[in-house]
Amino acid sequence: MNTASSDNPSVRLTGMADGLRVVLDPKQPIDFLQSELNRLFKPLGHLAINTRVLLDYGEAEEWEGAEEMTAALEGFLKESFGVGTVVRPPKKRREVEEILRHRDMDRSWQNHRSDVLMLTGRVRSGQKVTARKHLLILGDVNPGGEVVAGGDILVIGTLSGTAAAGQPDREDAIVLSLDFRPTQVQIGTIVAAGLPSSPTKQTEYAYVEDNTIVVEDYLEADPFGRLPWPEVR
Amino acid sequence: MSGKIIVITSGKGGVGKTTATACLGASLALLGKRVVVVDMDIGLRNLDVVMGLENRIVFNVVDAVKGKCKLAQAAIKDRRIDKLYLIPASQSDNKNALVPEDMVRFGEKLKQEFDYVLMDCPAGIERGFDNSVAAASEAVVICTPEVASVRDADRVIGLLYARSITPKLIVNRIVPHMVEKGDMLSHEDIVDVLSIDLIGLVEMDDQVVVSTNTGIPLVLQKDSRAGEAFKRIARRMDGNTDLPIQIPQTSGKFWKKIGTKFGLGR
Ligand SMILES: Nc1ncnc2c1ncn2[C@@H]1O[C@H](COP(=O)(O)OP(=O)(O)O)[C@@H](O)[C@H]1O
Ligand SMILES: [Mg+2]
């Protein structure tokens, strides 16, 4: 017989304020578990009737047959001893998951390899700069200059040339510039040309909404200021 | 002697490259330097006309580069200004008659003979441009206050940087009263976009046309504002970098002076 040693029994029974707690090793065969339960519950007699039972599989990881085993044991306990509800302990979040959530709020960027191409200088007429993902230019893009990116395009200076962000098909990309006066903007597949430029230098950005390119004052719109915490883009 | 080869270029046509080449060549020669101006606009020669030397042409730059004549035979001496020489373009060839490697070799020869070699570059950015730039170590970009001219100048500046040449800028054909009314780009607008060192501002001046027609060099004419501006530019090119740049103004006003603002002291 598959017996449990006294200091590490396969089935244990303890009393709780609002019922009984059964800790058992789900790796044991069901017949054995039932006989052990029988042995432990019999002496309780009528005390077991209508009590709440907490079925705890201890350290065992969640496995596929858990529901089935719970149902079988619940049926057995109700039929044999007339217990009340049979429940399982509230699911604990697994540790890895816990760490992930923590990191999300904390510094998701720490292990992030940057995909930003950051350049300084001036993109002149006839020149073309292409970035696989985001493009950041500390400088200007002259009329006739061209900047293209798989992700966002940020020009810390004047953008007077053409900018194509989110290439080939990412419509959530943006184009931002401290002095926004491009001759043409493309985001994903959507193109806007002849954008009216403001008479004064203005930090504006372009994004896609309902298949159209919208240009807005960046500081007023503050599109990312509402995110609860910093995220990798 | 080991002179400097400077290319005068712009990308766009009709902005004043040929005018500037003639004026700067003459001014540098008046400063006592041995100067040769080379018309690289092969097939469309006109530097000879601007300098009033068209009926003295026997050989041209293609002949000289290809060794069909001696350098001394192709270099025409100016009638009025000592130490100024012209190597004219060939009218019958096209730009593919020369390759950049030819020009590098020819440039070495010219540097032995002259203090300054000014290459009058044709419009465009193809072979004619490549040939004109091949031997040059310095460049002057001519731009007029027009959007298209600025765009082309910008393109050319990028190409020059790609050849490790840091160009200097001349803004030509400025009309002061239009700039003041806001009807013309100001030189500040242009420098903002091109962001290279400014070496001079030249205003629109009827004397330029008069000079071409009479054959009297602009820089020898009295009271030509454009001529004066080119003379000052020549002095800056010749090392007098502190000479302030004068901003053309409508008459009656004093000329404003800007100096180190554009980093000419460098
Ligand atoms: N500062 C100026 N004022 C008036 N006319 C000018 C001036 N500079 C150039 N021009 C005129 O403009 C035209 C084009 O000049 P040119 O020197 O031949 O240009 P490019 O060599 O660049 O084609 C010519 O007719 C010339 O006389
Ligand atoms: Mg010309």
Core attributes:
heterodimer; A: 233 residues; alpha/beta; Transcription Regulator spoIIAA; Pectate Lyase C-like; 2 domains; six-stranded mixed β-sheet; five-stranded mixed β-sheet; 4 helices; 15 strands; rod-shaped; disordered N terminus; B: 266 residues; Rossmann fold; eight-stranded mixed β-sheet; globular; disordered C terminus; binds adenosine-5'-diphosphate; binds magnesium ion
State the distance separating the first and last CA atoms of chain A: 60 Å
Which regions of chain B are unreliable across 5 or more consecutive residues at pLDDT < 50? 260-266
Along the chain, the helix and strand elements of chain A come as EEHEHEHEEEEEEEEEEEH
Which regions of chain A are unreliable across 5 or more consecutive residues at pLDDT < 50?
1-5
- Radius of gyration of chain B from the CA trace? 17 Å
Structural class by sheet pairing and helices of chain B: alpha/beta
CATH topology of chain B: Rossmann fold
Give me the CATH fold name of the largest domain in chain A.
Answer: Pectate Lyase C-like
CATH superfamily of chain B: P-loop containing nucleotide triphosphate hydrolases
Total helix count of chain B? 11
Q: What's the overall geometry of chain B?
A: globular
Largest sheet entry of chain B? 8 strands, mixed
Q: Give the end-to-end Cα distance of chain B, rounded to a whole number of Å.
A: 25 Å
